[in-house]
Design brief:
Blueprint (H helix, E strand, L loop, with lengths): L28 H7 L27 E11 L9 H12 L29 H17 L7 E4 L3 H15 L4 E4 L21 H13 L3 H11 L7 H18 L10 H19 L7 H18 L8 E6 L1 H10 L22 H4 L5 E9 L7 E6 L2 E2 L9 H6 L2 E2 H7 L1 H4 L6 H7 L4
Parallel strand pairs: 1-4, 2-3, 2-4
Antiparallel strand pairs: 1-5, 5-6, 6-7, 6-8
Helix pairs in contact: 2-7, 3-4, 5-8, 8-9, 8-10, 9-10
């Protein structure tokens, strides 16, 4: 029987949380959106995507969904390495004399600031997100069922699958991790079969280039408001990380109100710059789209039932990168002007806050209609809204409903269908030496 991990809380410093984090407040994505606190790249709290103007939210009444494939990111979690910056900030504040006169946004510092974030693990809000999505999914697809779910090997993802199935089915389900599939490459963690996929260190230079354009400016502004507090660039980064991670753990953070909208926008863009470099079209040697092709090929195999054993429901759980790789492989989030560490391109398509926030969910539907459409059709729902399949739309109805026919969907994804694990394209991106 699967039992979710019991977490031990790591205390980091200073005074009690009561009154600072406001325990007991219900989650409110509306509040986050009003204040611009839902845009921190892939560290964003879950929120439904904005409705795409002109695209219908529901299918025509004569259409029936025949097959559903869910790809779900884990829920809100604690920091994964970023706690170093948050702890550094806590230490700096603890060793400083806080000025008596403070602007309203910084007055919480009179009571001290601490962090009780548990690194890497699913938070209570993350558990709630997955349970709620399970309930919503079950109500949306009441006639669909399955005997097991597929998960990455990471504990927070396994926990996410557990809480989702509790919400959907109200009972325990068999959770199979991808390492038990016995495949040379799997579509949830394809990068594990790509030895040259090691992007973080290679992207540090671009991250640093962009950070130099906005971090020092914030430090100068806050240092003027906090005379006697020797803030470093690392402290500012710690405060920026504290905002989304406090939200992930408690749904509120005193740090979010400290920053101006354009400062948070710069932080959001930094996350996108890194994520696009990992999973998008600015990834080295197009590694991102190539890795995403594994999922696309599996999806086409299921919708086309080429193996003869396709099921009507698949529930699968992974990471932000898993979802972003799929969008990249399908050319659905590619910017004409590539993201750059020199400036923020206007109207960029790659937006981690909209495409893969915490608890992001990607739902693929194959459906048929009596009159409205001819033959099997495909639709993508991403974070609560139709995500138009612009790469394969042909008719006015396709534009109106964001859909396309299965046959055109397959043709539009020839990039992926021409790639196989271990072939020349794969090896050039993942295995061969330069």
């Amino acid at each position: 029987m699967y039992i979710p991990t019991v977490l031990n809380v790591l205390q980091v410093s200073l005074s009690p949380l009561a009154g600072i984090f406001g325990f007991g407040r219900p989650a409110s994505n509306d509040i986050h959106s009003v204040h611009g606190w839902d845009k921190f790249g892939v560290l964003s709290p879950y929120h439904d995507r904005s409705h795409v103007h002109g695209v219908r939210a529901d299918l025509p009444a004569d259409c029936t969904v025949d097959q559903v494939v869910l790809l779900h990111r884990h829920g809100s979690r604690g920091p994964e390495g970023e706690e170093v910056y948050i702890n550094k900030l806590v230490e700096t504040l603890e060793n400083s004399t806080i000025p008596h006169h403070l602007p309203p946004s910084l007055r919480f510092l009179k009571h001290g600031y601490k962090s009780d974030l548990v690194p890497k693990n699913l938070t209570i809000i993350g558990r709630q997100q997955l349970f709620d999505h399970g309930v919503e999914f079950g109500r949306r697809y009441p006639g669909f069922s399955t005997d097991f779910v597929l998960s990455s090997t990471t504990q927070r993802v396994i926990d996410s699958a557990f809480y989702f199935t509790q919400g959907m089915f109200g009972r325990e389900m068999d959770i199979v991790t991808v390492n038990k599939l016995g495949l040379p490459v799997n579509w949830i963690l394809p990068w594990e079969s790509c030895p040259k996929f090691s992007p973080w260190s290679e992207l540090e230079a671009e991250r640093a280039t962009w950070a130099k354009k906005y971090i020092p400016v914030i430090k100068q502004r806050l240092s003027a408001l906090l005379p006697g507090v020797e803030l470093s660039d690392e402290d500012i980064r710690g405060a920026l990380y504290a905002c989304p991670y406090d939200l992930a753990a408690h749904d509120v953070s005193p740090w979010c109100e400290v920053f101006k909208p354009h400062e948070l926008a710069a932080f959001d863009y930094e996350s996108d710059l890194v994520s696009d470099g990992i999973s998008g079209y600015i990834s080295r040697n197009d590694t991102g789209p190539i890795l995403g092709s594994v999922y696309v090929n599996k999806l086409i195999e299921r919708f086309s039932n080429t193996t003869g054993d396709a099921r009507d429901l698949y529930l699968e759980f992974g990471h932000d990168v898993t979802i972003l790789l799929v969008l990249s492989a399908m050319n659905l989030n590619k910017d004409i002007i590539p993201l750059t560490p020199e400036y923020i391109p206007p109207d960029r398509k790659f937006r981690g806050s909209e495409q893969s926030p915490f608890a992001a969910w990607m739902i693929w539907e194959k459906f048929t209609c009596k009159h409205s459409f001819e033959g099997p059709q495909v639709r993508l729902l991403l974070n609560g809204e139709t995500y138009p399949l612009t790469s394969c739309q042909k008719s006015l109805k396709d534009l109106r409903f964001g859909t396309c026919s299965l046959s055109r969907f397959v043709k539009a994804n020839v990039f992926s269908t021409n790639i196989r694990y271990g072939d020349e394209t794969w090896n050039a991106a993942c295995v061969d030496k330069y």
